[in-house]
Request: fold
Amino acid sequence: MCGIVGLYAKKPAFREKLGAHLAAMLVEMSDRGPDSAGVALYRAPSEAGANKLVLHAAEGSIDWQGLSQAMGTAFGEQAELSLRGSHAVVTIKAPLTALRAWLVEHYPQARIVSAGEIIEIFKEKGHPREVVKQFGLEGLSGSHGLGHTRMATESAVTTEHSHPFSTGRDLCLVHNGSLSNHNRLRARLKKAGVEIQTDNDSEVAAGYLAWRLAEGDSLNQALERGIGELDGFYTFAVGTKEGFAVLRDPIACKHAVLAETDDWVAMATEYRAIAPLPGAESAEIWEPEPGRVYVWGG
Amino acid sequence: MIEIDLAQTPLRQANRRLQQVAPDSNERSFVIRNPQGAHAVAAGLTDPIEVTVEGHVGFYCAGMNKEAEVKVIGHAGVGLAENMMSGRVQVTGNASESAGATGHGGLLVIAGDTSSRCGISMKGIDIVVGGSVGHMSAFMGQAGCLAVLGDAGPSLGDSLYEARLYVRGRVASLGADCKEKEMTQHHLEKLGRLLDRAKVSANPRDFRRYGSARQLYNFKIDNIGSY
Reply:
């Protein structure tokens, strides 16, 4: 059992408080996932040609200031650093593949939590209320975001095993459910060159999407193909640069509810996570159909 | 009318109040405000009281209901009126999965749509849905009636026992051992009475009837060699 939430601002004024609203939704789903929590916020776009990396490492194993300076020197550009809870956000004008290679060589203990122009993923073990506090989510603005509260059923409770999982540049996935063919699929994806960091089943779904998108599928195509290839129970929410997508498996025993007003679109495992949003009582509310891909914001 | 505001009163306290109405009490009518999607609102009621819930409810609303009349003005989450014994539960909006699951009796009326597994393992409950039902509805239904004014999703009545199914709209597909059956005068009258009880305006002649083909659950003498 896990809880997932998603929120998309339809009006600029709503963006200011997106972090606070998403945090409220996430905390409401604490009963469904008290082990760990995380969010992907789409906010503060970096300038053209720059990449924003969110990095995580075992506590005290990296001097982030030193990493940012060394990275700046290596690429001949200014690296901007901000620390948020246990994560570091570094923005620099340099290609992603070169940044990845540099990190592997110089800071192998650092793990890229998310990468892209706009995405920022923050996730940690612990009660969702504590995770929200640690990362100061309530003060953050953004255009849209996803969140996850985890009750682990098939792999360890660590930061790395927490959701959301990055699925490529500005993409991420959160999952409620369990996949039954993840071991075989993981082996297949690794063979195809997809990097997978943990033994978590949801990360395999994220890796699968990353692989299909790299192969040229659109998000819609990748998700629709996934219905045939991912065996198990799932409600997925996928964050993209422009919005988010929702997909439930054809048996659909993992709950999901969608709601929309003039100001926002929201998805959650249960309505009570949507209830605290302004105007929720008069929102249009419906349940996503099994095996159908829903996309907001392109 | 006694008001209970869930923004002020803890849910357990509110439910206990509804579950423990004294037999000689005049307290017969309650309204619950601000449910905010809470689970198990008005669950486990055992007395003939009236409860109106103003707002959307979460999972298991009016579960195990006995004799009470519960009306939700809004939508309901998973497991609405599950294992209901008697009484009446009504929702003005939509209901999520497994509405009326395992219900033994009483009447469940959903004005809007319900999603998958509506009336799963129903054991005598009557369910009237104003909109459409999702896949696997009335799965293993043993007794009672499910009347759907809209459409039914795939695998309607899979592994059906003796529950009776009436659908006015399109049926995406029938489940294993479920088949269309003749709508006789007896069934027209029965359905008419059910729709009247549900205060739903529809002509029974517009419905088609589905039931068990009785090939799956019955002991068949032809199969004696297999035992």
Chain A has a mean pLDDT of 95. Residues 216 and 222 of chain A are 9 Å apart (CA to CA).
